[in-house]
Amino acid sequence: MDNTIIAQHALAQYDINVVSVSPIAQSGAAVFKIEDHRGFLYSLRVHKSNSSTLEKMWTSPDMLDSEMLWLDALNRDTSLTLPKPKRNMQGSFITQVNDINCTMLSWVEGEQKQYFTSEQELRSTAEMTAALHHHASKWQPPSSFTRPTVNRARIQNALELLKQQGLDGLLDAHDVQILETAGEKAMDLLDTLPINKLTWGVLHGDIVPPNIVFVDGVANPIDFGACGFGPFLTDVAITFTFIHPNARQQYIDSYGKHFPLPNDYVAQIEALFISLVLIGMRNALGMPESNNWLPTHVEKCASREFGRYANGEGFLFTGTPCWE
């Protein structure tokens, strides 16, 4: 059953009069834009990934229901503009079609971009991220809440898959060795981080320009599909993969005005940056045609951020980013 047919079956379980169904994107899930007879817009997600290496946990009912619970709490407790989860006619956030799970959210209007285009966008994104962390630092998830954690096991799994690619000759073995050295160093630091309400909790997990809609320069978060537990600075680290080193201090300053930074925030962000790029590479391994671009990406990372980190040099505010 293809995604469009699954979407049609799922929509029949919601109390809306559908006028149009438009496919929008396909990554961790197939996303459809839905319009009803009143002109209201929704996002229907069919949770089938196009990456064969994406961890299966991301599409389980418990995981998806927990994502919806946090979004529901954010809509209730904050003034942020973000997707609002919609229950089906059975009162559930999760709609099943055969063995495929689907979820429905309100559509958030605004402009999506492939990269940040102004200082205002950076400042607003930092303030929005701080607002999410402020809520998470106060919010007590229910006992049923289940989301992944940024931890050694996931980073180690990424390294194992990348090492196998090196052994098979699909990635340069020397590049992979640099990734491994940097990854081991990052994991060692993350193992030492304290867990308390001001440093660790539920986080978005993928605050990058394609997952933000901008309205008059104001950042509104969407796509909470990667949310989970971890150091709050995880969200800053993933955003920094889209910010040039010479603009990162400005971002940190804006964030720090609204949520406290630990004294060693630079070391933490660098370790998280390395860890998240490795997890991203892991997911990319299962994407169609990744062999056309991943080896070059790995080579750039190894010669830039990862190489400097493995050698004990800082990279957060200096050097050439891996995308250049």
TrEMBL record:
Q: Which residues form the Aminoglycoside phosphotransferase domain?
A: 94-256
Per the UniProt entry, what is one GO biological process?
threonine biosynthetic process
Q: Which GO terms describe its molecular function?
A: homoserine kinase activity
Q: Which InterPro entries match?
A: Aminoglycoside_PTrfase (IPR002575), Kinase-like_dom_sf (IPR011009), Pseudomonas-type_ThrB (IPR050249)
Q: Which SUPFAM superfamilies match?
A: Protein kinase-like (PK-like)
Where does the source fall among the domains of life? Bacteria
Q: Which family does it belong to?
A: Belongs to the pseudomonas-type ThrB family.
The entry's protein name is Aminoglycoside phosphotransferase domain-containing protein
